[in-house]
Known about the structure:
alpha/beta
Amino acid sequence: MADIKLIDIEKYFGKNYVIRKLNLEIKDREFLVLLGASGCGKTTTLRAIAGLEEIDSGKILIDAKPVHHLKASDRDIAFVFQLYALYPHLSVYGNFAFPLKATKKSPQTIEKRVGEVARVLQIESILKKNPSALSSGDMQRVAVGRAMVRRPRAILMDEPIGSLDAKLREEMRTELKRLHIEIKSTTLYVTHDQVEAMSMADKIAIMDDGILQQVGSPTEVYNHPANLFVAQFIGSPVMNISDCKLGAGETCTQCFLGEETAAFPFSKSLFHQIESQGVPANRLTLGVRPEAVRHRPSDCR
């Protein structure tokens, strides 16, 4: 497997600045999810790593070796597309065997690897079928298997289960995570679905408008968002946001929302923590997640 490192990556499409000085590291055997809204640059980033898009500046390193000047076929990376991209005239076995035949592997090696991947994916019974005879879930398994059979240094997935129905998506999330653990692959997974990201990722990298906002574990980005964008992007329902100002009460920190005169009580130490960071106490934003709301008497305990 491989470590992948992106250093100051920039990409333009004409005058559109799509990726802006992106720095990111995917460690060996890590499952990293690149999360963001449509058009934020996440798929372009994935395609740049694979060699399907040329970058305008920066470096792409795999195991500390620059690869941004290499063709896609020379990077030893597998790519799983959103719409399967299977060869319709070939059987499942033929789809698995194709990349091995292209690299002139022996028939014995091909048969062995196809059998191994089919057992891992639990699709040995459909090896003789053509894609037109398969369900959506089986087609997705075949697409993943065709990437796995090459034993690449890394597997890149571009919203691979985005076109499936809700129940099948839930099953495939579990399946893809299980496969990742079993084959010990370095995996970079692109999605706009935060539920997928939170349930599958070792780490999540959140992008907005071509800029990397935060990288961390699901727990870190949820409990300690780096900014308001991350705070509201992660979580369902979204975090409630309101302008506020703080005041130092005798027994608690008083939090006033907007023009309200009634205050919410917080711990007394909060005011001093904010003050010590040099942040104006009258120019703050309060974020409250719906599931964090609890009913209690209105006093300053």
